[in-house]
């Protein structure tokens, strides 16, 4: 037995510290440049990432985040086909040219076209024959009032003879002119043989103006990342997600400083080459370094920091998030690999603190779970609207996942659920979160707070913020003073 208490390090989190104000020559919050790296090869104009949780990120959230200059990570608690379809929805949502637009054969029923249009939330479908020869265009307007859903699409589409098209490789200026002059919304692009080579839409051209800081790939499509696990179908899943155009894979397990994570990382890098791979979660310098040595292009940091986590309570393991970021960033410093601070962001000031501590971006879970774009319906309780958020290691999420995985084997659901409940040691909880409207309002608050925070630190860029920042530990009295006090608050 040890005779004296060991020297214990102190772990700190966001509420334990404040950033000491510094001389600032920033004239406006707009002078604060929030651009950063998500991973080695993916740049963001705002350092905000939405979490790979099933109550947070599917295509609607990923589209909204990418338009605002961040990025979303599609969760992996879906079948491979479902996750691929979410990635495709993001990649097809807008682009300079949609290279692979939705198509349908001329003899398909209107019913099918309507289902595709609704499912993919698109304005129209190009009708093609053999060799992808363009035969016509079917738009939402052509069929929404159609009573006979068994009619063939060729009977209701705009036929090729009346269609305005342009050759493949047309300039954006000319495409815009054609759309405008002909008062049309969609311009199919044709190759020399009349085959479909792409689609330009007026909606996409407008979006380019509306969202100038959007996170886009070289083809002008919104960027999206997708999570994969470390067991079972993870390699097949990775391949199909990359084929669908995912810009980065996120190897995500609760304890990322593990042989499993390192092997998976190496396997993905070996099989798929120059793909961007984010790995985590870790909470130490050594954890970050080991993942970087295995090939990680970004490291996700946070063990037990999330709002729905009970990992620290259940396992006794974890590191308060500010210390986890500081330590992991120190481990990653020499390599220049970015750190993603994952979990625990409750207020805008936490974003500034995480970035000042060395994170290049923050991943947000429950704060976004209450928004319009998160999966799932709103729930009304005593006149107040809520949405559901749950840890991915909560009992409910575990039951859902295992039932889905085992369904294919034909086992009875009841028997299975009983077994799962008996065996499960949940490390997450579920709960309701007040409905907050559109996610852009939440992002606006977070980024607005960050810009102001940068200004208080006299930082024009996030790298300056990291260099100039000075943290001060505060007492509980200091924390109390930081909150509104001694008034009866009305707003
Ligand atoms: P916030 O605080 O933004 O955190 O809601 C989101 C992050 O929490 C992690 N996460 C979990 N951690 N048990 C855990 O210990 C869970 O069930 C769980 N589910 C999510 C995850 O890193 C996420 O990004």
Descriptive report:
The longest helix is centred in the C-terminal third of the chain and has 18 residues, at 439-456. The radius of gyration is 25 Å and the shape is globular. The protein is built from 19 helices and 22 strands. The strands form 6 sheets. An 8-stranded parallel beta barrel has the order 4-5-13-14-15-16-17-18, surrounded by 7 helices. It starts with 16 loop residues before the first strand and ends in a 9-residue tail after the last helix. By secondary structure, the chain is an alpha/beta fold. It folds into 2 domains: 14-93 and 222-375 and 435-482, Aldolase class I (TIM Barrel, Alpha-Beta Barrel); 103-202, CBS-domain, CATH 3.10.580. α2 (80-93) packs parallel to α8 (234-243) and α15 packs across α16. The model has no long low-confidence stretch (mean pLDDT 92). It binds xanthosine-5'-monophosphate. Xanthosine-5'-monophosphate (XMP) binds at residues 51, 53, 281, 302, 304, 306-309, 311, 342-345, 363-367, 391-394, 427-428.
* Count of helical stretches: 19
How many domain modules?
Answer: 2
Q: Bin the strand percentage.
A: 15-25%
Number of strands: 22
Major β-sheet profile: 8 strands, parallel, barrel
Distance between the termini: 56 Å
The percent range for helix content is 25-40%
- Which class of secondary structure composition applies to the elements? alpha/beta
**What overall geometry do the principal axes of the alpha carbons give?**
globular
Heteromolecules bound: xanthosine-5'-monophosphate
C-alpha Rg (nearest Å)? 25 Å
- Quaternary structure classification: single chain
CATH third-tier fold name of the largest domain: TIM Barrel
Q: What's the pLDDT, averaged over the residues?
A: 92
- CATH superfamily membership of the largest domain: Aldolase class I
* CATH domain class name of the largest domain: Alpha Beta
The CATH level-2 architecture of the largest domain is identified as Alpha-Beta Barrel
Unreliable stretches covering 5 or more consecutive residues: none
What is the strand arrangement across the widest sheet?
4-5-13-14-15-16-17-18
């Amino acid at each position: 037995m040890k005779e004296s208490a060991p020297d214990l390090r102190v772990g700190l989190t966001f509420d334990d510290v404040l950033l000491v104000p510094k001389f600032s020559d920033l004239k406006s919050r707009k002078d604060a440049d929030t651009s950063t790296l998500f991973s080695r090869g993916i740049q963001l104009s705002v350092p905000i990432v939405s979490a790979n949780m099933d109550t947070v990120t599917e295509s609607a959230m990923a589209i909204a985040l990418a338009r605002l200059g961040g990025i979303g990570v599609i969760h992996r608690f879906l079948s491979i086909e479902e996750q691929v379809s979410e990635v495709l929805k993001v990649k097809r949502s807008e682009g300079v040219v949609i290279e692979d637009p939705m198509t349908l054969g001329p003899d398909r029923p209107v019913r099918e076209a309507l289902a595709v249009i609704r499912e993919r939330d698109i304005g129209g479908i190009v009708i093609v024959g053999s060799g992808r020869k363009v035969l016509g265009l079917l738009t939402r307007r052509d069929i929404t009032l159609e009573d006979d859903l068994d009619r063939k699409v060729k009977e209701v589409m705009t036929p090729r003879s009346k269609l305005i098209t342009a050759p493949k490789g047309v300039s954006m200026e000319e495409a815009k002119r054609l759309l405008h002059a002909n008062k049309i919304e969609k311009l199919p692009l044709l190759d020399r043989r009349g085959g479909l080579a792409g689609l330009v839409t007026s909606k996409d051209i407008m979006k380019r103006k509306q969202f100038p800081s959007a996170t886009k790939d070289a083809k002008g499509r919104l960027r999206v990342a997708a999570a994969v696990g470390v067991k079972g179908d993870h390699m097949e899943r990775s391949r199909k997600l990359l084929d669908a155009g995912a810009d980065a894979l996120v190897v995500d397990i609760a304890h990322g400083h593990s042989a499993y994570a390192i092997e998976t990382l190496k396997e993905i890098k070996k099989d798929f080459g120059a793909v961007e791979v984010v790995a985590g979660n870790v909470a130490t310098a050594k954890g970050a370094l080991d993942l970087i040595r295995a090939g990680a292009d970004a490291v996700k940091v946070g063990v037990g920091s999330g709002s729905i986590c009970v990992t620290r309570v259940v396992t006794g393991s974890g590191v308060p998030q500010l210390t986890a970021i500081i330590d992991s960033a120190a481990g990653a410093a020499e390599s220049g690999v970015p750190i993603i601070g994952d979990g625990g962001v409750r207020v805008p000031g936490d974003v500034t603190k995480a970035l000042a501590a060395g994170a290049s971006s923050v991943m947000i879970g429950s704060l976004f779970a209450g928004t319009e774009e998160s999966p799932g319906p709103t729930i009304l309780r005593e006149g107040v609207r809520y949405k559901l958020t749950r840890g991915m290691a909560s009992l409910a999420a575990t039951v859902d996942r295992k039932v889905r995985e085992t369904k294919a084997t034909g086992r009875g659901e009841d028997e299975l659920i009983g077994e799962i409940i008996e065996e499960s040691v949940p490390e997450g909880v579920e709960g309701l979160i007040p409905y907050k409207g559109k996610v852009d309002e939440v992002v606006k608050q977070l980024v607005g707070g960050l810009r102001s925070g940068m200004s208080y630190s006299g930082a024009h860029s996030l790298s300056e913020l990291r260099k100039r920042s000075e943290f001060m530990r505060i007492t509980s009295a200091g924390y109390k003073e930081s909150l509104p006090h001694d008034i009866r608050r009305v707003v």
